[in-house]
Amino acid sequence: MKNISVAVVGATGAVGREMIRALHQSMLPIAKITLFASPRSVGMQLSSDFGNLTIQPLCPGCFRGIDIALFSAGSSVSREVAPRAVAEGAIVIDNSSCWRQDASVPLVVPEVNPAFSHQGIIANPNCSTIQMVVALHPIHKRWGIKRVVVSTYQAVSGSGHRGSAELQRQIGLYPDNDLFDTSHFGQPILNNVIPIIGEMQPDGFTSEEHKMRFETRKILAAPELLVSATTVRVPVFVGHAEAVTLELLHPADPDEVRMLLHSSPGMQVLDDGADRQPMPILSASCDDVMVGRIRRDPVFDNGLSLWIVANNLRKGAALNAVQIAKLLYNGR
Amino acid sequence: MKNISVAVVGATGAVGREMIRALHQSMLPIAKITLFASPRSVGMQLSSDFGNLTIQPLCPGCFRGIDIALFSAGSSVSREVAPRAVAEGAIVIDNSSCWRQDASVPLVVPEVNPAFSHQGIIANPNCSTIQMVVALHPIHKRWGIKRVVVSTYQAVSGSGHRGSAELQRQIGLYPDNDLFDTSHFGQPILNNVIPIIGEMQPDGFTSEEHKMRFETRKILAAPELLVSATTVRVPVFVGHAEAVTLELLHPADPDEVRMLLHSSPGMQVLDDGADRQPMPILSASCDDVMVGRIRRDPVFDNGLSLWIVANNLRKGAALNAVQIAKLLYNGR
Questions:
Q1: Whole-model pTM?
Q2: Which of A267, B29, B93, B331 is deepest in the core (most CB within 10 A)?
Q3: Are the C-beta atoms of residues B278 and A127 closer than 8 Å to each other?
């Protein structure tokens, strides 16, 4: 087995740090890891599972000799730097939304569409989408999904370190709400929920809600699938939750759904009455997508509702990217 | 105008205290207010907008001379004591779920079904249901609603003082999660969301979710309405939020919906892009039901989605009960 050289671009961010951890845990034969970040972090020492590493500058030629580069530095960096990395010989796995809508770029969740071809760039989907499609894919294959209505309960870490830091400071200051710094979310996030994630679009949905529709269709290869999302930020550090109601083409018995999901990859069914259901606090120590509240839904003839929780930094971002890297490596 | 004598049963609870405040603000000509609570609170002095009041015992004859009694002391007290109060001459407005399913008991939201007849007991609906039907009623009258899919984001005060106290203590102890007392919710509620409210039922829905279906149908007089709810507790002190997706019988333009709701009673439309949307923190100082995120929903031919927030202790409980009392008084 050939050893590989890996890079993380955006290594100091919330997802970047988690990518380094996930790479270390991945059992990939990593000969070398190179960390890149924005100019203000260059030269900084980052303590990681691979030891202390120095942040390198993104300069011409810097991707030569690198096999796989994981990007999580935002769309503008991805747009500019990813093609250069590919030209210099790396395969890019990009966590930004920059390339996801590009028809020539595969959008990959290994449990769902592991057999993809690429031209150097592979897109990692939106966090809310990844956890949903892991659960929907086996259901769609077995019973066919016609409609998806989803409401999300999204953790602050989904918006990076600054989101987590802002909630943390508000907890420390509570109940002195007047002292709250709300510069990141624009509103207090402690003791509140905010019904806007991303930018508002002309049709009244947000960019995050559009991503959930577009990406779910692309990953499931179901261009006609009807998807409606309401994405909401809640005062939770890590772990996105989703209330999902489906209209299926054929009737599904909840016990059969439980058995099917239980035997599907990357998933844990936690559905034991009121005592044991998926919750964000459980996602800290769980890399699987957790599914519960599985029940027949009476609003549709073939209705099914479920509750999906996953760690947004791990399966929702870093871990999924590393799982794609493993597919690439194993597929050689 | 005849002055009236009013009682509050369960006066020391979160909703009971809010009932006293709402009564004081109501402009009802209250000649006398009598407070009842459980035996352990009898004799206690309660400081209120009406001055210091002593908690009285619930004993035979205690409702003689009382015109209207607001109950918020739980189902078992309502079941036992409300009929006695009626027999002694009071009209009971009951905030528990005890009488809501009784076909002879009206379930009232003044903005929706103010013209009711009663036999002494009037039921106040569930908090999540009240705020939803205030918004759905004008939409249903104008366009007809076929299906309702709702996910809730419910405040801890909906489960009483103990819920709020538990969240408060957890904020104070954070990040020492190991010290968290989770006796009330059974799980940490800070930094978490809990996808169970009420008791789990055989069909996989909870009692809270059943209430939202049954009560919405009864209040809107729409026994065929298809309603599916997922009710979730979030770490917010006051203010329930709801993501609602509707299938209508006829197409509704979002601007028309905004105009209709804007001119409907008890409602405020806050729907100004990303800048101004309903949130729990805004409900502390707002007695109206706030509606935003109004948009055409593409999962249905005649789909409409909206986001509804209200103060669960005020419009969701105490204020609605006092508004029923005002209807009774004005209807004399």
A1: 0.97
A2: B93
A3: no
